[in-house]
Amino acid sequence: TNSPLDASKPQNNPFPPYNLSGVINNSVLGYFIGRIYLYLMKVGLSKDKVRFRQHMDNEMAHYACDCWDAESKTSYGWIEIVGCADRSCYDLSCHSRATKVPLVAEKPLKEPISFYLNVVQFEPNKGAIGMAYKKDAKLALEYLAVCDECYISDQEKLLSETGEFSFETEGKTFRLTKDMVSVKRFQKTLHVEEIVPNVIEPSFGIGRIMYSIFEHSFRVRQGDEQRTYFSFPATVAPYKCSILPLSQNQDFVPFVHQLSEAMTRLGVSHKVDDSSGSIGRRYARSDEIGVAFGITVDFDTVNKTPHTATLRDRDSMRQIRAEVAELPGIVGDLANGSLTWAEVERKYPIFEGQETSRKE
What we know:
Layout: H1 27-42, E1 50-54, E2 66-74, E3 77-88, H2 90-99, E4 105-108, E5 116-124, H3 126-133, H4 137-145, H5 149-162, E6 164-169, E7 172-177, E8 181-189, E9 192-195, E10 199-204, H6 206-217, E11 218-220, E12 228-230, E13 241-245, H7 253-266, E14 270-272, H8 279-288, E15 293-297, H9 299-303, E16 308-313, E17 319-323, H10 327-335, H11 341-347
Helix pairs in contact: 3-4, 7-10
């Protein structure tokens, strides 16, 4: 359908259902719109700041029969970040008309006699076209013979409204009037079904999506306006984890190396912050650049067996305690989306504070 949705009054549900009757008539287009929405949610856009808007007739691309934009609300207002066009069979139909070769897929029918199709084709007045275009008439007739139903229907509308339509082929321009061509509709028994493949074209503006992620993910800690952070989903956070020794005590170094090497083997992007600042200040630095999790090596790691360390969630600032050998795998599963922080909290004990304050 080409009837637009009012851009100032988008649907409350930003995720259009596949079977939204009269709005998205093509279920494949609806499927792609759904996948686009799920992708945008996965990479960190806010569902309250995403909507889909259908193109109006006066902005529809010449190749599209329907088109939807995913739009993101930013400090600049609503901006287009993804376009999804139903190109129908436009591309192959153009090639077919230009080359005069039908570009179709063929599907043999098991019972051809019982299968009927309403056929639409041009019915040229060869005499009138011959008188008007002489030796070039053959080019016009060949062009009319390979036109598809969509194109014929469009030109039929022009014939009805203006009494003529024009086309170009082989470098020649032809203008045909009602006395030169008409449109014929009839039924035909098919032995082979001819299918012109259709195209759905999603186009993602990666830069705009990234900017939207930054805006939608920016947060300020409650009660402390100086502490800001990015709440990137772990799947897209540049660093999945920080490894932070509690202090510069050399007893922590072997555990930091063990964790870092294990993270590297698993392909988990991480950073080691062993600077001299307090652990709270280093947490804040990690949060500012959107690091999803933080592992802290403390004196309980050194003094107790099995050796454990804490794992901190950036958004909630809650921590659990788990064995050092387990932590890289936990972070890896959190980063690829196969594990949630809520599941981690249910499985591992919540960390309240270390029990030892120096090496025993």
